[in-house]
Amino acid sequence: xxxxxxxxxxxxxxxxxxxxxxxxxxxxxxxxxxxxxxxxxxxxxxxxxxxxxxxxxxxxxxxxxxxxxxxxxxxxxxxxxxxxxxxxxxxxxxxxxxxxxxxxxxxxxxxxxxxxxxxxxxxxxxxxxxxxxxxxxxxxxxxxxxxxxxxxxxxxxxxxxxxxxxxxxxxxxxxxxxxxxxxxxxxxxxxxxxxxxxxxxxxxxxxxxxxxxxxxxxxxxxxxxxxxxxxxxxxxxxxxxxxxxxxxxxxxxxxxxxxxxxxxxxxxxxxxxxxxxxxx
Length: 280
Known about the structure:
- By secondary structure, this protein is α+β, with helices and mostly antiparallel strands.
- It has two domains: 2-148, no CATH class; 158-277, no CATH class.
- It is built from nine helices and four strands, in the order H-H-H-H-H-H-H-E-E-E-E-H-H.
- It has helices at 2-9, 12-39, 48-76, 83-105, 110-157, 159-170, 177-182, 255-262, 268-277; strands spanning 203-205, 219-223, 233-237, 250-253.
- It has a four-stranded antiparallel sheet, with helices on both faces.
- The longest helix is centred in the middle third of the chain and has 48 residues, at 110-157.
- The radius of gyration is 29 Å and the shape is elongated.
- The two termini are 34 Å apart.
């Protein structure tokens, strides 16, 4: 899952956005600190260098506190807490730690430091929250989508061992996937696709034996095209060697790649039956 996030969402643009944010955080936060703290009783001359250092240290400490808090919250609740609630708790921890850093750096009372830090910390936190929301919301949605895809592929792959047992026993393929349930080789729930939960049997299959040929890409079964993902389907290919009954791996195909797979000679019967089943 982490690999999916890194490959699909950590692109060049996000580094550019983060770079701009860090510069704005240090420079902008430093400018606001330089303006705010003298107003609330800080008598010493406050240079821009020290202001930027204060902004950097308080922001870094706050970001670290937010990350640790978020991990602890999600770990202690086993991920059951709503992500947004965890983010609010983490933001509160970040603001508190950043305030403590500023309080330690400047000779002001806690009340004066609190009022003086509201503008710089509030501004940086607001911008960070907007950027974080703009980035994390689609990322989290993408992770959830990939999780459902992976689980759909996982359940599809579990069908093949039951198919292999049936073929070895009866020397012919089952007439339908329902037969595997009737033979007690699968539970009914194992035939439901997470992306097509309304279907009793969520995967399409036609009776077929593995064809000979190491280079063949013969489809064993697949998800339906009208699944809730809407951007492809899970597909399981037959083993390439008829003598090997090891469970093949299923994978997710985009609809374009799946159509190319259907055009192969070994999938002509499957493509015709699927077209009829999907009413195309």
